Amino acid sequence: MQEDLLKRANEHAWHGTPLDAIPLYDEYLRQDSLCAEAYAFRGFAYRRLGNIEQCLRDCAMAIQIDPTYAMAHVIRGSTYRQTGDLIRALQDYTQAIEINSSYAAAYANRGLTHEELGNYKQAVSDYSHAIFLNPKYAAAYNNRGLLYSQMGNNLDGIQDYTRAIELDPTDASAFYNRGLAHSALGQHLLAINDYNEALLLEPDNPDIYVNRGTSYDATGDSQRAIGDYSKAIRISPDSSTAYYNRGMSYSELGDYQQAVYEFDAAITLNPNDADSYEARADTYIAAGDIFRADQDYAEAERLRRANLPN
After folding, report:
1. Are residues 185 and 216 in the same domain?
2. Which structural domain, as residue segments, surrounds residue 265?
3. I want to staple 164 with a disulfide (CB 3.0 to 4.6 A). Which of 32, 51, 141, 152 is the partner?
4. pLDDT in tens, 204-253
5. pTM value?
6. What total of structural domains would you count in the chain?
7. Does residue 80 sit within a domain?
């Protein structure tokens, strides 16, 4: 009966409603006040509810009860990483690995932390070791692929995204990331195919529409690109990038008046974007309005100078 209570609490904490898990953990801990698992998982439930302070207290209690309980270190490490305390996160993940050298999730999470710290070589090593320990770890492949792409190695990135998709074909981010990598390599038709798959899984993701629009533009299909930017704007009306890109598409079609409207909107949303001023200036030039073009070129130059490092 007692173990069933803990099992139900864990199900709520990890897969259900964490608010329902808390009273179950409380009841269990009244019966067994020295259960490290209950404290650690209650901490996880509190973190899902946004109560970081209580999460850290519960994790600390779990570790005090059982210093060798690796999962408590991983939960606390992920909480520190969420709050931006990357050094403490790194320490907790390392402690978990020292306790259990076969803990794939500890390596994968430490890889994420190394990546955020700019330690790319260590991050690749940790992702690779996580994959060695668990060859079906789709998220580790996806994260290593992202890092490869960030380092400019899109071919290895695509290989990792493909493996992640094979392991978990319901993960929209792997399709999206592979699309970005194909796009970076100029393989826009392949990119569009991946964005299509991603949108089947996440039809309300504005970033996918924006990037598919960019690939449509690259293939010369400005009308479809405009359609995608419009969908992105309907989902996310504050997307200055979508307005900017739609302006570029209208300019490519020779509809300079509409292009100016789009750049106006992009500048309203992001008044410090020099590229929008320059694009509007180019459009004014195409439309024969030299005076306004000169004003926008001057503002673009001013913004770029202001953003130069001291």
Report:
1. no
2. 207-310
3. 141
4. 999 999 999 999 999 999 999 999 999 999 999 999 999 999 999 999 99
5. 0.90
6. 2
7. no
